[in-house]
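Known limitations

Files may contain more than one protein. Parsers should not assume a single record per file. Below, a two-record file is shown to illustrate correct handling: read the sequence, read the token line, then continue until end of file.
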Amino acid sequence: MWGAVGRVGGSGLRGVGGGGGPPGPGGALAGKVAVVTAATDGIGLAVAAGLAGAGARVVLSSRRDPHVAAAVGQLRGRGLEVSGVVCHVGQPHSRQLLVQKALETYGGIDILVSNAAVNPVFGSALDADEAAWEKIFQVNVTAAAMLIKLVVPHMEKRGGGSIVLVSSVAGYMPFPGLGPYSVSKAALLGLVKALAPELRPRRIRLNAVAPGLIRTRFSAALWEDEAARERVMAAMGIDRLGTPSDVAEVVTFLCSPAAAYVAGETVVVAGGAPSRL
């Protein structure tokens, strides 16, 4: 359950960080339009808040309308400019509607953060059936690649853009019981390396973040029990759990002009946990 382990979307709105109040006129992302998937909970919600706090206008998405409405309401209540749309990234038509919503609402797309992921199985990787493997890769990998394909023409019209994929430290250090999920997150590391050289001439930077053990409801089984939490932290070599805002701050940096010379890289946000293939 490293990083964004769990289902697409979610209902909780806890642990939001990465942006304190209303964006100022001189924010690093002022004038930019950002699309964030699985953005109603945990890391995704913190990322949406962080980008909006830096001045971007954000279209957030998730699978369920009540969750989208709650997240939009919360962030607008903080003075942030956001809108929302229901989107199941595993469905081509739904991905197209997400992109169209951003274009109709804000007139373009400058930033994409692909955060949606699923993990429908736990146990031996050898016991996972073909349907589980297909679902994991369809949502975690293929959908990310297809979203990139959809937004690239619109980013080119605006002179370039920035794309960040949310991978996981599990892509480097597979977690027992999460074999297929871990493989899909490793595939995202490869996707960055494969596509970044094609996107650079188009003035589009593609990077990724690899969160470690982040305090979200999806990873609660690993940290709610104190004894289990201490064992996991010792095994990972970390002295605290990460927060959604820890990840959001890095994503916001990668999308900003401050990271103009960063492309084709994965930034590990895991408190020092091992992260080498």
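...continuing to the second record:
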Amino acid sequence: MGKASPFLLLLVGLGFFIASYNLFTTAMQNQGRVSTDQLIGRSALSLPTDPLVAMPNELKKARGSKRPFHVALTATDAPYSKWQCRIMYYWFMKVKDIEGSEMGGFTRVLHSGKPDNLMEEIPTFVVDPLPAGMDRGYVVLNRPWAFVQWLQKAKIEEDYILMAEPDHIFVKPLPNLSRGDYPAAFPFFYIKPSENEKILRKFYPEDKGPVTNIDPIGNSPVIIKKSLLEKIAPTWMNVSLKMKEDPEADKVFGWVLEMYAYAVASALHGVQHILHKNFMIQPPWDLKVGNTFIIHYTYGCDYSLKGELTYGKIGEWRFDKRSHIRGPPPRNLSLPPSGVPESVVRLVKMVNEATANIPGWEQGK
């Protein structure tokens, strides 16, 4: 057998190179096409530093013109709800027009069924509460019903909505963190679908897929396309009511029942969320403000005068929203003692700034 010519060997080698290159690039492209299950991290602890790393490349690049979102929060006409809404709206107005913001309009969705004395101070849309007794003393059940009514009746110019809560404070301007049909949400460590599969299967049957399709989230904070929320909201309402009627779900889920209901309703519609750990912080457990957008002051902050956390025991220094059920906190709250985390100090300073600048604060409106 004769030797192959150098030219022929060169052609064969080039052919192998091209075939190997195509195989390699195809494999890499397929690796980049992340499945929906891979796209959404299932544990707050396993999230990458950059919450967008796991997103398909085409969604990462979908950052063209501004995509404004409408900020909506449900509220009651109780004094406890009112003062939180006033602080929240103050900080919304303060940061909404700063560079980097995609914040659009704002609505307090008031589910008392009648106007109150904040109508002129805060843009408000009045909706009906659930029929008497239907919430079984769990007032949060009115939230999904309020969103159903608002979405049906109100004129909302923006294509996206941020579902927020009265005890949220905007630390800085918030961009639209959602991408395409993937809403953005905050992962809550205590929403654990896999650990509650037996209960959740009553509302998310096996033919819908694995229980890991249910994201570890609540409805807030969530930035979502209005068209998607219009589909999810009625299901969210119905699942919430069914869960409340189920003794086992009611007992196990307790005060986070409505959060589980939103997560289930989203999964029933095939909607999964991009999880953003830096969406918000929750003092006193989160110690630094860092690169976050929202402070959520749902937990009480109790400290000794030495700056030691005394959670579960009233501290020598404290800030707890539940200390002000009947009316607003006074202006110029005392700052925390030395050694208290930055997040708590920042929270109190932001509350003080808002109350110092909101007219008629001491009267409580």
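Parsers that stop after the first record will miss the second one. For reference, the second record is described as follows. Residues 1-54 have pLDDT under 50 and may be disordered.
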